[in-house]
Amino acid sequence: MNLENLALLFDQMPGGIWTTDLDLRYTSSGGKEAKSFKKNHPNYLGMTLQEFFKTDSTDYPAIRGHLKALKGEIAEYILHWEGEYYQCHVSPLYDETKKLIGTIGHAANITEQRKEEFSSIKKRSEQAARYQRGLLLLTKMDYGHLDETINKILKVTSETLNVERISFWLYNKKRSEITCKSMFCLSQEQFRSGYTLKALDYPRYFKALEESRHLAANDARLDPRTSEFQDYLKSFDIYSMMDVAVRLQGNIIGIVCHEHTRSHRDWSKEDQEFATSIADMLALALETHEHQKAKQALQQKTQALQKSNRELERFAYVASHDLQEPLNLIVAFSERCRSLIQKNTEPRLIDYLSRIENSALRMHQLTNDLLQYARISTRKRPFEEVDLNLIVSEVISDLQIKLQEKKTHIESSHLPTVRGDSSKIHRLFLNLLSNSLKFSEKNRPTEISIASENISKEFTKISIKDNGIGFESKFNKKIFTPLLRLHNQEEYTGSGMGLTICEKIVQVHGGKIEASSQKNQGTKIDFTLPRTHQVKKSL
Fold first, then answer.
1. Which of 228, 380, 435, 532 has the lowest CB atom count within 10 Å?
2. Strand pairing class (251-261; 100-109)
């Protein structure tokens, strides 16, 4: 079939048809579109595509498509030409011997279709811009008061989506029903609340929201997921519904319901995405509210604790001050009485006076230790870097006389620098080394070793071991109990608060302390303190 017969065959076909040779010169044309095309361009036959479109660019859609067809492939492209849009298809053209002789193309005018598409895109763009403005308005909102926040979100959503009724429902703890937290009616500019729906009465609806976050019913009365609300829908003239589950930490806690009245509405993808963002905002409002409640509760507990600490410190101060004054008088007058009557009184009276003095001195020490214990948590100082080598040197200097009396040998490895309260850490080492000296063997030199070990990125462990009298292993965990004494007062003096104070000091530094011992085999104390690069808070 020659090209002229081919043109006649295609002359009655819709659109436009053309052929080109191997040089991309127009050789024929046909189709209904070709009639008006020939009228506007009577001399185009014989022209190359480059001459006709006035370009040599191989990226021009028509030229690129025809070059692809000359390679034996089928090409499709959209051509915008003289204000019109054409959907074009170009294929290789062969003769009877299957020899490639050119191309054959077909074009359909899609201008009206494109206009509709552009109109739809413009409408959706305007809609997206409106939704963005609504979301931007809500993101600038103060989330302080929960009810006001919810009402603001519902009102802005109703106005932005142009939905007559929008409501926010919350599940009860058993998830057996939902209660309307707030409902906004656009035409009436009113808020309502208090309605309750039981899940058992609407099984398909609640199941649908469990399985999919969105429930978009264009015809709510026929949609099986929402038709259970038939009476409700008719009474309020509701035709379409779009509901979104509100999730918090992966769990459904509520539902946002959008109700379109007086006509059906096809919920677009943009509608559903905007509604999802609103559901997320409501979840954020609830979460923020819960955080604020928790923060307020924590602040109240902190204030109560601070008040309790202040009262405890006042009590400890008053107790120590008021108790020590009569104790000092008891000691002073006991000493005077003994000096006056020592030469003329029987030994029993001297013994009684000595016991009174010793009891008063023990009471004096106990009140001091109780005051020291109370101040560990209540008196706060900023953390600082503390060189434990320097602390040990200071403690050894403080205990110099006792160390000499006990013929003590202290072996200490190089200790790390930690972060904490230097005065409290000094008290910790002083108490522990004093204990090693106090509970040492009488006829044997005292040996104390101090070592350290980094056990994690956060903490370093300090170990203090001695060769003293030790104690039974069953007391390993009880030894830090306040006022606990394992030996009688006459043999080993003390208030029973020393190790309790040590435990408290370690605890306020975030560490732990443990004791291990066996009778007559010495004692080992292990405790942890924060390393310098981890701790940022203060005591």
1. 380
2. unpaired
Per-residue tokens: 275: 């509604």
Which helix (H) or strand (E) element contains residue 139? Answer: helix 111-139
Greatest mean pLDDT among 74-78, 265-269, 322-326: 74-78
Rounded Cα distance between 29 and 7, Å, is: 6
Element (H, E) at 342: none
Query: Kind and range of the H or E element at 384?
Result: strand 384-387
| Gap between the Cα atoms of 326 and 312, Å rounded | 21
Cβ-based neighbours of 521, under 8 Å, separated by 6 or more: 470
Query: What's the rounded mean pLDDT across residues 223-241?
Result: 92
Rounded CA separation 236/242 (Å): 15
Q: Is the pLDDT of residue 390 over 80?
A: yes
Q: Which of 186, 188, 170, 198 is nearest to 279 (CA)?
A: 170
What angle, rounded to 10 degrees, do the helices at 347-378 and 269-341 form?
Answer: 160
* Residue 157 in tokens: 């959503």
Q: Count of CB atoms within 10 A of residue 212's CB? A: 12
Question: Would the pTM of this model clear 0.85, i.e. be above it?
Answer: no
CA angle 315, 316, 320 (to 5 degrees): 115
Identify the three-state secondary structure at position 156: helix
Could you report the per-residue pLDDT of 122-174, keeping only the tens digit for each? 777 667 677 777 777 777 767 678 888 888 889 988 888 889 999 999 999 88
Q: CB-hemisphere CA count at 13 Å for 115?
A: 6
The arithmetic mean of pLDDT across residues 58-75, rounded, is 94
Residue with tokens 């009488």: 442
DSSP 474: G
Write out the H or E segment, with its range, that includes residue 86: strand 84-94
Amino acid at 476: N
Q: Which two tokens stand for residue 122?
A: 């413009």
Q: Among candidates 483, 475, 464, 474, which has minimal Cα distance to 523?
A: 464
Q: Are 447 and 517 in contact (CB under 8 A)?
A: no
The tokens for 362 are 């023990």
Order of strands across the sheet that contains 459-466:
409-412, 447-454, 459-466, 523-530, 513-517
Which pLDDT tens digit goes with each residue over 36-52? 677 767 788 899 999 99
Which distant-in-sequence residues (6+ apart) come within 8 Å of 424 by Cβ? 376, 505, 508, 509, 539
Report the distance separating Cα 179 and Cα 159, nearest Å.
23
What is 246-286 written as a DSSP string? Answer: EEETTEEEEEEEEEEESS-----HHHHHHHHHHHHHHHHHH
Give the type of residue at 185: C
Are the beta carbons of 16 and 33 closer than 8 angstroms?
Answer: yes
**Which helix (DSSP H) or strand (DSSP E) does residue 329 occupy?**
helix 269-341
Owner of token pair 């507990």: 301
Amino acid at 129: A
